[in-house]
């Protein structure tokens, strides 16, 4: 059974968003990392890049496949998790804490409210 924390918001593309002061952390869900298998590389944008909602902003490469990362909200990148450069497998072992991918500033706060709740995302996972 995969972990789906109640305190986060989720995209239908298997990414999570967490409020962190006046910014947000973004990562992929436990369900997504489980489906991908062992993660070996993460490609991310540069600090300062602006990405529109649903736009590809990077990729996650696993031993099985390469998957695009799609922006769950419109944002500006304020930090990247540089620890993933040397240890991308952190996403497999701790997707919701140490395995965060980006810290961002939301362009449109209302987009966060439009994301899936824990319950809605659980239903999506159960149907997969």
Automatic annotation (TrEMBL):
> Which CDD domains does the annotation name?
GCS_H (cd06848)
Q: Which UniProt keywords apply?
A: Lipoyl
Q: Which cofactor does it need?
A: (R)-lipoate
- The yes or no answer to whether the keyword Ion transport is present is no
Q: Cytoplasm: is it a keyword of this entry?
A: no
Modified positions (N6-lipoyllysine) are 64
Describe how the cofactor binds. Binds 1 lipoyl cofactor covalently.
Q: What is this protein called?
A: Glycine cleavage system H protein
């Amino acid at each position: 059974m995969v972990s789906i924390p109640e305190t986060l918001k989720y995209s239908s593309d298997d990414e999570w968003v967490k409020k962190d002061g006046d910014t947000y952390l973004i990562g992929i869900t436990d369900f997504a990392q489980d489906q991908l298998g062992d993660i070996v590389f993460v490609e991310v944008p540069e600090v300062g890049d602006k990405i529109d909602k649903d736009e590809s902003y990077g990729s996650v490469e696993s031993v099985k496949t390469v998957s695009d990362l799609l922006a769950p909200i419109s944002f500006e990148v304020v930090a990247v998790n540089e620890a993933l450069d040397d240890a991308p497998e952190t996403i497999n072992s701790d997707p919701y804490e140490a395995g965060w991918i980006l810290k961002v500033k939301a362009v449109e706060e209302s987009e966060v409210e439009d994301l899936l709740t824990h319950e809605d995302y659980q239903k999506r996972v159960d149907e997969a």
